[in-house]
Amino acid sequence: MNGDLDLIEKILRKLDADHNQQVSVTFNMLEAPLVFFNQVFAETAKPETDRKFRSIVDDKHAQRLLEGLLKDENMELLHAPNLLIMDHQPTSYSSAQEVIYPTDFIPPLENNQSKPSQPIAQFDTVAPDGEQPSFREVGLTIELTLWVDLYERIALELSPKLTRLIGHEDYGQGTKIPVFWSWHINTIVTLDPDETMISRGASSEEQKEIFVFIQASILK
User: What does each C-alpha distance from 161 to 7, 12, 131, 212, 214 come to in angstroms?
Assistant: First the structure.
């Protein structure tokens, strides 16, 4: 009897127009040598399907592909967050090191001392889009909003960003400033309940690529 009541309650909640559904969204971000991904993609595709890369694949193929990639010693899993998100509600995620750095310098003042003075760091100039002046998050950040559409299709408005500190540049007189590299997606995509989105792009490392697997499922 209790089981029947639970089932009825689930059905009523699903039919309630004011009930916002919860969605589990999983990201798998990997880095791999060039060409390797295409080889594994073709190997894991079913014979009757297209073996060329597609940005949206069914969940089963995505799982086979992910497992095949992770078996290789040259593959690196960079991040794998799982986010629980309410329908229509924006969500933010950050797994990053906070780096504060100067964006400008005042030249050193001349004086009579034998040792030259150092430039004076400034922290109040312009910043890249989405960043505060003189501040960067080195790692993975995600901005995400989703909507559950008809037939449980999920529309995702997402903006993941991977940032790396790749070195320092000499500003002069021994003063160095950080050099950053970023990989950023800003898009809207719609997924069926059994689909996974795959994005790929160049890495900061030569002869390597970055891949992101994005899968969303409605919690029943």
Answer: 40, 39, 11, 11, 14
pLDDT in tens, 102-143: 767 776 666 655 555 666 666 665 566 666 667 889 999 999
Yes or no: say if 164 and 182 are a contact pair by the CB < 8 Å rule: yes
The SS3 call for residue 11 is helix
Counting beta carbons within 10 angstroms of the beta carbon of residue 197, is it exposed (0 to 12), middle (13 to 18) or buried (19 or more)?
buried
What is the reported pTM? 0.81
**pLDDT tens-place string over residues 37-82:** 999 999 998 776 778 888 999 999 999 999 999 998 889 999 999 9
Cα(164)–Cα(34) distance, integer angstroms: 19
CA 110, 113, 118, 120 torsion-angle sign: negative
Q: Yes or no: say if 133 and 124 are a contact pair by the CB < 8 Å rule.
A: yes
Residue length of the chain: 220
Q: Residue 180 corresponds to which tokens in the numbers above? A: 């950053």
**What is the SS3 assignment for 67?**
helix
Going 81 to 82 to 84 to 90, the CA torsion angle's sign is positive
Which residue is it, tokens 């089963």? 60
